[in-house]
Amino acid sequence: MSPSARILIVDDDADFREFVRIVLESHGYEVCEAANVPAGLELMRDARPSLVLLDAMISYELAGVSALRAVRGDPRLARIPLIMVSAVLSADADRFLPAEQRALVDRFLSKPVSPDELVAEVAGLLAAEPPRPSAAGPSRPAS
């Protein structure tokens, strides 16, 4: 685990954001939150998170997918590890996301997610070597 890692949660569900914040802070992570995509993109640029948890269905249908394309298309953000969370996409990602978009996501998590699974996925992704190549260039340095 990387106790100093900053995790950004972008989700319009305040209860889910609170759950994630409590779980991750109890494991030593710093957590910041955004309730919508524009605020999330701004925080990604300003707060420089180590990892982002992004809701696929935030605000309106598949807005998280649009945000994913914006993140991976921005050289300043493209290498940030990204976990997409959704009750819809978890089991049926193949139906909702074309293969080229699925490749831009580091992990998918199903809502509801257990605290143990959440921490394991975050810690595992932060420690993963080698990292997934981004759409904007060569892979990011290992954390």
How many separate domains? 1
Number of helices: 6
Shape: globular
Q: Say how many strands there are.
A: 5
Which strand order spans the largest sheet, edge to edge or round the barrel? 2-1-3-4-5
- By CATH, the topology is Rossmann fold
Structural key phrases:
five-stranded parallel β-sheet; Rossmann fold; 6 helices
Descriptive report:
With 143 residues, the protein is of the alpha/beta class. It has one domain: Response regulator (Rossmann fold, 3-Layer(aba) Sandwich). The chain is 41% helix and 15% strand. The protein is built from 6 helices and 5 strands. The protein has helices spanning 14-25, 37-47, 63-73, 89-96, 99-102, 115-127; strands at residues 6-10, 30-34, 51-55, 82-85, 107-109. It has a 5-stranded parallel sheet, with helices on both faces. It is globular and about 35 Å long. Residues 130-143 have low confidence and may be disordered.
